[in-house]
Amino acid sequence: MHIGVLTGGGDCPGLNAVLRSVVRTAEKEYGSTVVGFRNGWRGLLEDDSMVLDRPLVHNLLTRGGTILGSARVAPQKLRDGLGRMREVLDAHGVDVLVPIGGEGTLTAAAWLSSEGVPVVGVPKTIDNDIDGTDLTFGFDTAVSIATDMIDRLHTTAESHQRVLLVEVMGRHAGWIALNSGLAAGAHLVITPEQPFDIEEICQMVTARFERGHRHVIGVISEGATPLPGTMPMREGGLDEFGHKRFTGVAQQLGDELERRTGKEVRTTVLGHVQRGGTPTSFDRVLATRFGMHATIAAHEGHTGQMVALQGTEIGLIPLADAVARLKTVPPARLAELRAFTG
Ligand code: F6P
Question: In which residues is substrate bound (predicted)?
Fold first, then answer.
C-alpha cells in the first residue's frame, strides 16, 4: 500500500514524531511505502512531495516542527483544486491520505472524504480544541512551556509589587490558559469562553494588595474578550482567510487595569515560543500512538475517520463528527478555578 501524509495549519511539537511513527508502522508492519506532501495541502496542489523512509525519519522523535513544512490554505483554493489533488494522489499511487492538522486541516480532510478520497485524519494543535479526542499532542508541551514562564514571572512580580499579565495562545478555547494558570498558581485566569468583567478584575486586584499580597499573576487567552460595552477594545480586522486578527488583549486589559487601579501592570505575550522546540514525553507518546493507529486504520480500510484519545486508548471517530464543533472549556472546568484564584 502507498500512504500519503501531510502536515497542515500551525505547526506544533510532535508532528515529526507522527511522521516517524507512520513510516515505521507502514514499513515494518505492512511493507508499505509513505510519500510526504510538503507545506500542507499546497504540496498536493503543486505536486511537491518527498519519499519518507526509515533513514529519513531516524532521530525525528524529539525534533519540534515538521520536516514536511506546514501552511494554511484557503478553503476556496482547496475546493477549486479537487481535480488537481486527485490527479496528484493518483500519480503517486496513494491509496490513503493521512492529513495531520487542526480544525482547518481536518475540516478539509472531512470534505475530501465526502468527495470519495480515502483519508484518515490525525488531530494536532496546541490549543487542544478538537472535539472527539480527549487531548491533542502539542498541548502538553505548550502548557509546560507556559507554566515554566509563569513560574518565573511570580518572583519578579513580587519583587516589584506588580500585576503581571501573561497572554497565551488560544483563539476560541482557553485550555492552555486554564491548565497553565492552574499549574503555575495564577491569581486570575481569563479564557474566550467567558467574557471578562474589567470592574470585577479591578476589585480583585485592589483587594489582593489590600490583604497584604505583593503581586498578581493573570493568565489570559489571546481570544478573550471583555463583556460588551465595559471597556474600549481596538479591532484587529480579518486575516487573509477571514479569521479575526487578535490585537494584544493582555496589553489592552493591562492598560485599562493600570488606569483604573493605579497599580503597576506589565504584560508578557508568550506567542510562538509555545509551539517551538522538543515535545514533552507525553506528547511524544501520544503522537507516536496516533501515527501508528492512523496507519493501522488506513490498512484496515477504516477511512473517513480520525484517530482520537479516548481515556487511555486510541480509538476512531468519524471525521465529520470531529469537526462539527470546537471543544471549548466547559463551565464546570472554569468554575473549578474559583478555589485557586482571586
Ligand atoms: O491554532 C494554533 C495556533 O497556535 C493558535 O493558538 C494561534 O492563535 C495561531 O495558531 C497562530 O497562528 P500563526 O502561527 O499563523 O500566527
Answer: 125-127, 162, 169-171, 222, 266, 272-275
Query: Which residue reads 476512531 in cell numbers?
Result: 316
| Helices and strands: H and E segment counts in the chain | 13, 11
- Domains in the chain, ordered, with CATH? 2-125+279-323 (3.40.50.450), 139-276 (3.40.50.460)
* Nearest C-alpha neighbor of 200 from the set 249, 280, 256, 134: 256
Q: How far is CA 244 from CA 248, 268, 272, 298, in A?
A: 12, 21, 18, 35
**pLDDT, tens only, 238-268:** 776 677 666 899 999 999 999 999 999 999 9
Cell of 8: 497542515
Question: Which pTM does this prediction carry?
Answer: 0.96
Distance CA 232, CA 61 (A): 46
Is the CB of residue 335 less than 8 Å from the CB of residue 137? no
Is 254 among the annotated ligand-binding positions? no
Contacts of 301 (CB under 8 A, 6+ apart): none
What span, in angstroms and rounded, lies between the C-alpha atoms of 127 and 238?
A: 20
Of 186, 2, 233, 193, the residue nearest 95 (C-alpha): 2
197 annotated active-site:
no
Contact 175, 127 (CB under 8 A): yes
